[in-house]
Amino acid sequence: MSDAVLTEEDGAVLVITINRPEARNAVNGDVARGIAAAVEELDSRKDLSIGILTGAGGTFCSGMDLKGFLTGDNPIVEGRGFAGITQRPPAKPMIAAVEGYALAGGCEVALSCDMVVAARDANFGLPEPKRGLVAGAGGLLRLPNRIPFHIAMEIALTGDKYSAERMAELGFVNRLTESGGALAAAKELALKVAENAPLALAATKRIIVESTDWTSADQWEKQQEITLPVFSSKDAQEGPAAFAEKRKPNWKGE
Q: What angle do CA 179, 117, 152 make, to 5 degrees?
């Protein structure tokens, strides 16, 4: 992994930082491959339960590195999409900690996460039409499912910036913080989530994400396919035992 993406562990939380502040954390090939590698690590390790994606230098991500794009630098990872995350996000939960700008591809990266914590002065938007482009990294697919249809259409068609406070009103942002506080608040939320069993967390996320495509006829069967392995896991025995013994559970992720 290059210095374009940094990782840090805090208990069961993996913090992933886009580290190109001089370019407002625009996504180039190094960033895309770095995020993809970090996501793979998050999903493969039993001792990690949740990730946080953030940006260095007071900006989350300003989108695709247009200069790099013009020179052939590919910001797409095969199988995972733009920024190594938009097409196939991690199986485990992910929080976006947003300061400054989350625009264009940066907004689409935030949309790839399961929760969003943002500073009040942060801004979101899909300005691609202003540049003759289209938000093709999941923004147009995910945004109408996160906020009301007509507002999603307005954001996508105007290409304007929208404040974190407005996005919180719309239900896009989970928690607002003062400037500079997004990562700390995201860690607080992540550590709270990470108190729970990792297999149960991953299964819960999977059901919420995938069930939008299930029919009423098969939804219970599909849910059971995901939940049965959790109920037969060692963690499913540890949880009730810890409760009965009035102690903190020792999750193994198995």
A: 110
| Cα end-to-end span (Å), the chain | 28
Rounded Cα gap, residues 215 and 218, in angstroms: 6
Half-sphere exposure of 183 (CA within 13 A, CB side): 19
Q: Kindly give, in sequence order, each residue whose CB lies less than 8 Å from that of residue 225, ignoring residues fewer than 6 positions away.
A: none
148-197 tens-digit pLDDT: 999 999 999 999 999 999 999 999 999 999 999 999 999 999 999 999 99
Amino acid identity for residue 201 in this structure: L
DSSP bridge partners of 96? 53, 116
Residue 53, strand partner residues: 16, 96
Which residues lie below 8 Å from residue 198, measured CB to CB, with a gap of 6+? 12, 46, 48, 49, 92, 235, 251, 253
- Identify which of 17, 15, 13 has the alpha carbon closest to the alpha carbon of residue 3: 17
Report d(CA 195, CA 10) in Å as an integer.
Answer: 12
Query: How far, in whole angstroms, is CA 36 from its chain's centroid?
Result: 12
Q: Taking the CA atoms of 115, 91, 43 and 199 in sequence, report the sign of the dihedral they define.
A: positive
User: Which residues have a catalytic role annotated?
Assistant: 108, 128
CA distance 108 to 110: 5
Backbone angles phi, psi at 114, to 5 degrees: -90, -25
Q: What are phi and psi of 123, to 5 degrees?
A: -135, 145
